[in-house]
Write a structure and sequence with these properties.
Helix content: under 10%
Number of helices: 4
Distance between the termini: 54 Å
């Protein structure tokens, strides 16, 4: 199920859950603080008395605390607590007539706390909303007049049901925004938002939503930082279905004359557990954007950094289905507008972790991580674009019963910021690295694991371009018996930026896949070095599966390996992606299976295609024997060797078998590349024919031109060689 589908499911459940809660018989407690809007606001500071005295500070806003059935529990079906902190007063201006005094500081915003809870056997609903007051603005004067800090907000709910009716909790907190600074004053920081929610039931379905938003910052000479947001949501039921949602958003940093404010970090945690019900869990965290700097000659220090976004969710059920979707996104770095020697803000890191577990039902776990883009250096000078944020996505799903498991992880590093072309040594920001890991398992069901990582592009610059971010993807699929298992990984390194001094280096790409079931184990990997375009794809699967078509593409390395009941089939392809420099690419495939009697193994090279290389090396490892090593320096000799050539791997005893294949390609000419397809088999003619027919769907199989009977001499094919003459 996609994240969008999960959200649709969650939203469709809100109305019936709410109706169930409102239909209960009993009292409702509603607490609202303050009862008179604005009564908690702080007073403004006065203008400084003459001659030229400092402005008076603004008064702080007063706090607001609301509690409905939380501290003193009750069994009311609907408890609601709403709290709004008072606004900080504005700082007074410096006194006339010359305004040489300092402006008064703005008052801090009032904190807000709202807590609601209930327990009983009927329908239960709790609502807690806390909104902190904003900081007051700083007064004008010769100096100072700082903005007040936004108030902090804290909201919490607690529900416990022993009945059959629904349980619904809504919890939200919004930090107060920081006040703007007066003339030459600094901006106030945004207030934080903290949310904690807990809902439990013995039999009833549960819906729980928790949202936290950090306060935005105030602008000034040195701008304030956005407020942090932290959300924790825990949901449990013995037998009811669960729908839970945690969302955290960091406050944005403000614009600054000398320094932009940093974006607030965001953290979202979610734990949902049902003994027999279905579980759907969503967690998302988005870091606040960094604030930019304004144009002030030779005083710009840099844009604010984007806030980190980190989200994780864990969901489990004994017999029900489990669906988890997690997104973590870093905020964008702030731009810089100073004249020289300025650094734009770096993008925030994005981290997403999804974990799903079930005994009997199917599961789907998806994690998406997005690094924030680096800020841009907008004016000329020896400026530097901000680095892109890193992205790390991890998804794990374990079905201990016979249910299927689908696990996916997607990570995209933030692009590096560019530096405008000018007269000085401007440099782009580096692209953010990306890492994705997907691990799925089942005790008897089919398993599909997918990992995809894309590094951020390097930023452009005048003097030098930045490097693209590296990408690393790993997928693992494990089951028992004859269940189908498929692990697919794709990695794409970020492109390097451009500059007058030449392009930046692209990020390298690494992909790895592993699949295992009762029939054996298969692994595949691919590596493409940084340079020009770099991408890698690996597929490891077990079962009667259609292999994806594979083509030789610029900068791409591919390894597809499929284990069948009679051995394995596979394909490897590499395309050079550099611009004349020497680069080394590598692909591997490892097969592990068991034979019931002593018999020979064969590696048959079916066909090949390519435009050339500087050198090509094929290594073949079989159990504990010394690996066979074939090295080629010409396309003609390689083409002859890889076409319709059966290599005798020797007589192997009964029991576990291991066959490892590695390809190393070194190239330095655009357009170079090489690819081939193969089988690993025992000499059973009927099965052999079926395997060849099934393998015809592979991309390189189309290059076979009626050469299946033109076998090379077995003695030569089985012998290690440095090269083979045309």
């Amino acid at each position: 199920m996609t994240n969008q589908a999960i959200r649709s499911l969650m939203m469709s459940a809100v109305l019936p859950f709410g109706l169930m809660a409102l239909s209960g018989v009993g009292f409702a407690e509603t607490v609202v603080v303050p009862t008179i809007p604005g009564s908690l606001d702080g007073g403004d500071g006065g203008i400084g008395p003459p001659p030229a005295s400092d402005g008076l500070p603004g008064d702080p806003g007063l706090p607001a605390n609301a509690d409905a059935g939380f501290t003193v529990p009750n069994s009311d079906p609907l408890n609601s607590a709403v709290a709004a902190g008072g606004a900080g007063g504005h700082g007074g201006d410096a006194g006339p007539p010359s305004f040489t005094g300092d402006g008064g500081n703005g008052g801090a915003g009032g904190a807000a706390s709202a807590f609601a809870g209930s327990s009983g056997s009927g329908s239960l609903q709790a609502n807690a909303q806390a909104k902190a007051g904003h900081g007051g603005g700083g007064g004008d004067g010769a100096n100072l007049g700082n903005g007040g800090k936004g108030g902090d907000a804290h909201a919490g709910t607690s529900l416990s049901s022993t009945g059959l009716n629904g349980v619904t909790a809504t919890t939200a907190a919004i930090g107060g925004s920081g006040g703007p600074g007066g003339f030459n004053g600094d901006g106030g920081d945004g207030g934080s938002a903290v949310v904690s929610a807990a809902a439990t039931s013995q039999q009833a379905p549960v819906f729980s939503e928790a949202i936290g938003t950090g306060g935005g910052a105030g602008g000034g000479d040195f701008a304030g930082a956005g407020g942090a947001a932290s959300v924790q949501n825990q949901v449990h039921s013995d037998s009811g279905d669960l729908i839970a949602h945690s969302l955290a958003t960091g406050g944005a940093g403000a614009d600054g004359q000398s320094q932009g404010g940093d974006g607030g970090k965001a953290t979202a945690n979610l734990a949902a557990q049902s003994a027999t019900g279905n579980v759907a869990a969503i967690a998302g965290a988005t870091g606040g954007n960094g604030g930019p700097t304004d144009v002030v000659a030779d005083t710009g220090l840099g844009g604010g950094a984007g806030g980190a976004g980190s989200a994780d969710a864990t969901a489990s059920s004994t017999t029900g289905s489990v669906t988890v979707g997690v997104t973590g996104a870093g905020g964008r770095g702030g731009d810089t507008n100073g004249v020289s020697f300025d650094v734009a803000g770096a993008g925030g890191a994005g981290t997403a972790t999804a974990e799903a577990a079930t005994t009997g039902g199917p599961l789907n776990a998806a994690a998406t991580a997005l690094g924030g883009a680096g800020g841009t250096a907008l004016t000329g000078g020896a400026d530097q674009g901000g680095a892109g944020g890193t992205a790390t996505a991890t998804a794990t799903g374990a079905a201990s019963g016979a249910g299927p498991a689908t696990v996916s992880a997607f990570a995209t590093g933030g692009n590096g910021g560019s530096a405008s072309i000018g007269l000085f040594q401007s440099v782009g920001g580096a692209g953010g690295a990306a890492s994705a890991s997907a691990t799925g398992s089942s005790s008897g069901g089919d398993v599909t694991s997918t990992a995809s990582a894309t590094g951020g592009a390097g930023g452009d610059g005048f003097a030098a371009a930045a490097k693209g971010g590296a990408a690393d993807a790993m997928s693992t699929a494990t089951s028992t018996g004859a269940a189908r298992v498929t692990a697919t990984s794709t990695a794409t390194g970020g492109n390097g930026g451009t500059s007058d001094g030449g392009p930046g280096t692209g990020g390298q790409a690494d992909a790895g896949s592993k699949s295992q079931n009762g029939g054996g184990t298969v692994q595949a990997s691919a590596h493409s070095p940084g340079g020009g375009p770099a991408s890698a794809m690996s597929v490891a699967a077990i079962g009667s599966l259609a292999a994806p078509p594979v083509e030789i593409a610029q900068g791409q390395s591919v390894s597809v390996a499929i284990l069948t009941s009679s051995g394995g089939v596979g394909e490897m392809a590499v395309g050079y992606g550099g611009e004349g420099e020497s680069l080394v690419y590598q692909t591997t495939a490892d097969f592990g299976f068991t034979t019931s009697q002593s018999e020979p193994l064969y590696l048959t090279l079916l066909n090949s295609t390519g435009e050339g290389f500087d050198s090509l090396e094929l290594k073949i490892a079989v159990n504990a024997a010394t690996p066979l090593d074939y090295v080629f320096s010409s396309l003609t000799s390689a083409d002859m060797f890889f076409h319709d050539n059966r290599i005798d791997l020797g007589l192997q005893g009964a029991g576990p078998q291991f066959v490892g294949i590695s390809l190393f390609l070194t190239a330095s000419r655009p357009g170079d590349g090489f690819g081939f397809s193969y089988t690993v088999t025992v000499p059973e003619a009927p099965t052999w024919a079926l395997m060849l027919g099934g393998f015809a769907g592979l991309g390189l199989a189309a290059f076979v031109r009626g050469r299946r009977t033109a076998r090379l001499a077995p003695s030569f094919a089985a012998r290690p060689a440095r090269d083979r003459a045309a």
